[in-house]
Specification:
It comes from Streptomyces avermitilis. Residues 131-319 form the FAD-binding domain. This is Salicylyl-CoA 5-hydroxylase. This protein has 755 residues and is of the alpha/beta class. It has two domains: 1-329, FAD/NAD(P)-binding domain; 396-731, Alpha-Beta Barrel (TIM Barrel), CATH 3.20.20. Strands 19-20-21-24-25-26-27-28 form an eight-stranded parallel barrel, surrounded by seven helices. A seven-stranded mixed sheet has the order 6-5-11-12-13-10-14, sandwiched between helices. Strands 8-2-1-9-16-15 form a six-stranded mixed sheet, with helices on both faces. The protein is globular and about 85 Å long.
Length: 755
């Protein structure tokens, strides 16, 4: 096999060395347009996991790296002159130039041909001449661009500018330092990579970079300005550069990683923001996986397919974490006013890879200090602290999220709803929410949807609230009121979600006459008179809900239902006073809110669920969501329940763990209103992390409560918590400890005898 490698960075060199080592008969050639001693950037961070892979694949390289690494455990965070240190993190770094030198030596010893100062031949020639072509030519890969139609790359440029510098001394920890200047916020990321050297990255928003005058400075002047701004962190020392330039980070994603005998590796295939230190790590792991797949698979097509199948989910997970970290630093101004320890905890957990429980294992002393500052009594996890909304005090921060059950008959909740909601109330959550309860027969999503537009329905709901208040005292129960709008008259979810009924349809109404998706019924645009009728339907429903004994009312303005349809520019094409600008699109939902608030008891809280983004071009943006939240808060909303999407059928959500929580975080920070975070929050560790970091006030969980109705009780038991934040019902107390499992501690053999 003849192998061509385009790009002499760590990923390309390591791939070349591995392929040659595994099969010395391979002819492997590396093209690198720069000289051997040229390098950009300074230090490289690798994880223990990556080093373990290197050790197994090539002990020679591992031994050379091991001798060079600088290791440290601490992270220092300096916030408004106060330094907080968190330990137990475990980093290893070395100079990028030394890493390349080790890989150069290894490649030469194995017989890899290294062509420095030489542009690689055109990709078409390489693919015709070589059996395998590895494009490891970085974020600006010309090889990838030559076959853009095959790889279908997406390159997203982000908001911050950064510059890669170095200091001639070693930080004693990974250091984050924040500088608040007259022009805005700058941040320093620094870490040691040798006994006498550290990497220093200075980053700021584009508008800060412009206002501070960096656009007019040359390289030397920029370096001097950065050293002056961060003089305290540097101890008055200078910084140095290496052809350093201010740049924007670019996230690279490719729909495909291979085309014929050409395969992408490292930054050519994907990038992840430097704040989680994973660029070189991913490239080296790519090289390991590619080499392994070539050994394991019967042919090149199978090997390249297996390589992508193995690496893509790992890379996607890393990119999600990197995006969360990147966006945290882009929006760092939201967090500067937080208490200093909470700020530090928020920074440490920004990517969601380090969590409350994980950080407790790494540094219990630091985590306990954050908890004390937050107000957690000793031994109380953050999720079990109380939270007050008007006259309602929730004993903990867990909410059973509204979940449509499609089990009502003529809108009447029955025994199923009693058992479903009653079980979850007994399960310990601070607040249990009903499904969307429809305000009219025509406002149902499906024939199985519950309503509260008749006295019989209200009486049935009273039976459920009485059970909760009697059998689960201290648990709040809330009702979510809504109208299906253009998403009504459809089949039950398990019969065909969002599919129109085959018979028994009812007419639909919406802000504009736009069907939800092809084949859906086209709604009629609401007239002024009909708007008044619907507003009265909401107030009638709210009045019944109050008499039914609900503790909290949530107005459903999300997921493309009627009120949501007014908010989104994708679904509201009206030309009257209820369409056009965001202020006009808000008009009818706010009218409904005001009408409901006027009949809802003053001491009982009201929340509003919104879709903070439509996940579609031209739709509601995160900036719009902040303004929507501000508007509802100004009208008396006590909290905003922050969901996303389900507004248009062609949405493209960026799914992932806790993927919707950044929107809640932003609304809380910018609008100054309490928020409920939702969206793939699946563990009590997630809840503790989000609450303690100050990213949300309450966490709503849906599917975990379907899997385990007693999720909150079990979360308390697993954390060893027995305080007032969660109460086991008297009949269940005997089960408040995890049942014993089968024996797993059988004695091990004392001797192993050979034959």
């Amino acid at each position: 096999m003849r192998v061509a490698v385009v790009g002499g960075g760590p990923g390309g060199l390591y791939a070349a060395a591995l392929l040659k080592r595994l099969d010395p008969s391979r002819e492997v050639t590396v093209w690198e347009r720069n000289a051997p001693d040229d390098t950009f950037g300074f230090g490289v961070v690798l994880s223990d996991e990556t080093l373990g892979g290197i050790e197994h694949a090539d002990p020679v390289v591992y031994a050379a790296l091991r001798d060079e690494f600088v290791r440290w455990d601490d992270i220092d965070i300096v916030h408004r002159g106060v330094r907080h240190t968190s330990g137990g993190h475990g980093f290893a770094a070395l100079g990028r130039q030394r890493l390349l030198g080790i890989l150069h030596e290894r490649c030469r010893s194995l017989g890899v041909e290294l062509r420095f100062g030489t542009e690689a031949p055109y990709p078409a020639w390489l693919t015709e001449t070589y059996d395998l072509v590895i494009a490891a030519d970085g974020v600006h890969s010309s090889t990838r661009e030559a076959y853009a139609e095959a790889f279908r790359p997406s390159v997203e440029t982000h908001r911050c500018r950064y510059i890669w510098l170095a200091a001639d001394f070693a930080f004693d920890a990974f250091r984050f330092e924040i500088a608040e200047t007259e022009h805005g916020v700058l941040q320093l990321h620094g870490y040691p990579y040798a006994a006498d050297a550290s990497t220093v990255i200075v980053e700021m928003r584009e508008e800060v970079w412009q206002a501070a005058g960096f656009a007019e400075l040359d390289e030397r002047e920029s370096v001097e300005r950065c050293a002056k701004i961060f003089a305290d962190a540097l101890g008055g020392r200078s910084l140095r550069s290496n052809k350093s330039a201010w740049t924007h980070f670019r996230t690279v994603v490719n729909e495909r990683w291979s085309h014929g005998n050409l395969v992408l590796l490292g930054d050519a295939a994907h990038t992840a923001h430097f704040s989680i230190g994973s660029g070189t790590k991913l490239a080296v792991e790519d090289a390991l996986a590619l080499a392994a797949c070539l050994e394991e698979q019967p042919g090149l097509p199978e090997a390249l397919a297996a390589y992508e199948q193995e690496r893509r989910p790992v890379v996607a997970s890393t990119q999600r974490a990197a995006r969360a970290s990147l966006e945290w630093f882009e929006n760092i101004g939201l967090y500067l006013g937080r208490p200093s320890r909470q700020f530090a905890f928020n920074l440490l957990t920004r990517s969601r890879r380090v969590t409350h429980d994980n950080l407790r294992l790494r540094d219990a002393h630091f985590t306990e200090a954050v908890e004390r500052e937050f107000g957690c009594p000793s031994g109380t996890p953050p999720m079990f602290t109380p939270f007050r909304l008007r006259g309602l005090t929730l004993r903990n921060r867990v909410v059973v999220s509204p979940m449509d059950m499609y089990a009502a008959v003529d809108g009447v909740p029955g025994d199923f709803h009693l058992v479903h909601l009653g079980a979850r109330a007994l399960g310990g959550a601070g607040l249990v929410m009903t499904e969307m309860v429809c305000v009219s027969r025509e406002g149902r999503i499906t024939p199985g949807c519950a309503g509260i537009y008749t006295g019989r329905q209200a009486e049935a709901w009273r039976r459920i609230t009485d059970f909760v208040h009697t059998r689960a005292p201290g648990v709040g129960i809330g009702v979510q009121l809504g109208h299906s709008g253009r998403k009504g008259s459809t089949k039950l979810m398990w019969e065909g979600i969002d599919e129109p009924l085959e018979e028994g349809n009812w007419p639909l109404v919406a802000a504009s006459p736009l069907p939800y998706k092809p084949g859906s019924q086209t709604p009629r645009a609401l007239s002024r008179a009909q708007l008044t009728d619907i507003r009265e339907q909401f107030t009638d429903a709210a009045w019944r809900a109050a008499r039914s004994g609900f503790d909290l009312l949530e107005l459903h303005c999300a997921h493309g239902y009627l009120l949501s349809g007014f908010l989104s520019p994708l679904t509201n094409h009206r030309t009257d006073a209820y369409g056009g600008s965001l202020a006009r699109r808000l008009r009818f939902p706010l009218e409904v809110f005001d009408a409901v608030r006027s009949v809802w008891p003053e001491e009982r809280p009201m929340t509003v669920r919104i879709s903070a983004t439509d996940w579609a071009e031209g739709g509601t943006t995160a900036e719009d969501a902040v303004e929507i939240a501000r508007a509802f808060a100004a009208h008396g909303a006590d909290a905003i329940d922050v969901s996303t999407g389900q507004v248009v059928a062609d949405e493209q959500p960026a799914y992932g763990r806790s993927y919707q929580t950044p929107y809640a975080d932003r609304i809380r920070g910018e609008a100054g209103v309490p928020v409920i975070a939702v969206g793939a929050i699946s563990s009590w560790d997630d809840v503790n992390s989000l609450i303690l970091a100050g990213r949300t006030d309450l966490c709503a969980l849906a599917r975990p409560h379907l899997y385990d109705p007693h999720w909150t009780l079990h979360a308390a038991a697993e954390q060893g918590y027995t305080g007032p934040g969660v109460v086991w019902p008297a009949p269940y107390r005997a089960g408040s400890r995890r049942p014993q499992s089968g024996r797993t501690d059988a004695p091990k053999p004392r001797l192993t005898l050979g034959t």
